[in-house]
Automatic annotation (TrEMBL):
Keywords: Pyridoxal phosphate
Gene Ontology molecular function, alphabetical: D-cysteine desulfhydrase activity
Family from the record: Belongs to the ACC deaminase/D-cysteine desulfhydrase family.
Species per Swiss-Prot/TrEMBL record: Desulfatibacillum alkenivorans DSM 16219
Protein name, as recorded: D-cysteine desulfhydrase
Length: 359
């Protein structure tokens, strides 16, 4: 069974740097430290020592890594007095879904700028969920049109909105995984998790990866962060990760944190491109196998776009690693099928309804 270590009243980041509680807005969405567990059956199958951190359980209403980022982003939007959240992502964006869900609970309007990706059942379900949450969906076609609409055109119409980049990956969103880095270090110090030699996470917009890299450094946990690239190289690369980490480091210092310097040439980061496949959102044989194994042997649900490819890298690398490895499950494990099926595809904007098969 998963090991749950403590209730979460304040971020560990604030407990280590108390003045940040007064200077950095934060709202509680993650109810407790997410559990860690050893994947015994998969460890036997792979001949390795594989552990998982269950960030699919960040919230009982919608899990995954985006919830941690929104703790800082939503609080900042409220402090600024914003009435609407505007963000961007692919057609089936999990970040967009989390923003729509928690934005609605906060009483904020949500606008989603959507760009193309291969359409599968997960994408179709998320489109229906966006509608069920009252999000305004703006299908922009290719990436260039989406970027134009998000960065330029829409800001002319809604200068008072709170703009969140794809994946929630900016200096504030990254703090969600700086906090997770402290949380993992705390679980190691409590003895519920052995110190991992490598920590595996999907590298999409790189906010999660950057936060862990910075968080481990600040928490003094010596481990290697292993990012598995699932987006094009212009989105997921070492410079992007370190740039985000440095900006979050600067934000913490600006708000009064007494923290050691963080070097962008830190050697504890690896990025693996071998699982990427034909492109973003395209399934791979290795990814499908990893998804099946995780479900069949451990009852853990993964997706083919992010966590499936990441876990494929775990299965490949763990047997070569002398020591335990930790996989961060950033997928949402809350079943939202009924909520999605309550929405008729015909009620979606016409540019999006076209993706649904004819009845």
């Amino acid at each position: 069974m998963p090991v749950i270590t403590r209730n979460r009243e304040l971020p560990l980041l604030f407990k280590h740097h108390e003045n940040l509680q007064k200077t950095i807005p934060w709202t509680p969405l993650v109810e407790q430290a997410t559990p860690v567990e050893r994947l015994d059956a998969l460890s036997r199958e792979a001949g390795a020592d594989i552990w998982v951190k269950r960030d699919d359980l960040t919230s009982p209403i919608y899990g995954g890594n985006k919830v941690r980022k929104l703790e800082f982003l939503l609080a900042h939007a409220r402090k600024k007095g914003s009435k609407a959240l505007i963000t961007m992502g692919a057609l089936g964006t999990n970040h967009g879904l989390a923003t729509a869900m928690f934005g609605k609970k906060a009483g904020l309007d949500v606008v989603l700028k959507l760009t193309d990706q291969p359409v599968n059942e997960h994408v179709l379900q998320n489109l229906r969920l966006f509608a069920s949450l009252g999000a305004k969906m703006d299908y922009c076609g290719g990436a260039s049109g989406t970027v134009w609409s998000y960065y330029i055109a829409h800001r002319v119409q809604n200068s008072g909105g709170y703009y969140i980049p794809a994946g929630g990956s900016n200096s504030r969103g990254v703090l969600g995984y700086v906090e997770a880095g402290f949380e993992i270090a705390d679980q190691v110090s409590q003895g519920v998790l052995p110190r991992p030699k490598k920590v595996f996470v999907a590298a999409g917009t790189c906010g999660t990866l950057a936060g862990l890299t910075l968080g481990f450094s600040l928490a003094g946990l010596k481990t290697s962060v292993y990012g598995v690239r699932v987006t094009p190289t212009y989105m997921a690369n070492r410079n992007k990760v370190m740039g985000l980490a440095l900006r979050s480091h600067a934000l913490l210092k600006y708000h009064g944190a007494k923290i050691p310097e963080f070097r962008s040439n830190a050697g504890s980061l690896e990025i693996d491109s071998r699982q990427y496949g034909p492109g973003y959102g395209h399934e791979t044989l290795q990814g499908r196998r990893a998804v099946s194994m995780a479900w069949d042997l451990e009852g853990i649900k993964l997706d083919p776009t992010y966590t499936g490819k990441t876990f494929a890298a775990v299965l490949d690398e763990a047997p070569k690693t002398k020591g335990p490895v930790l996989f961060i499950n950033t997928f949402n494990s809350v079943d939202m099928t009924d909520q999605a099926e309550s929405v008729s595809p015909d009620s979606l904007p016409k540019p999006l309804a076209q993706f649904f098969p004819a009845a």
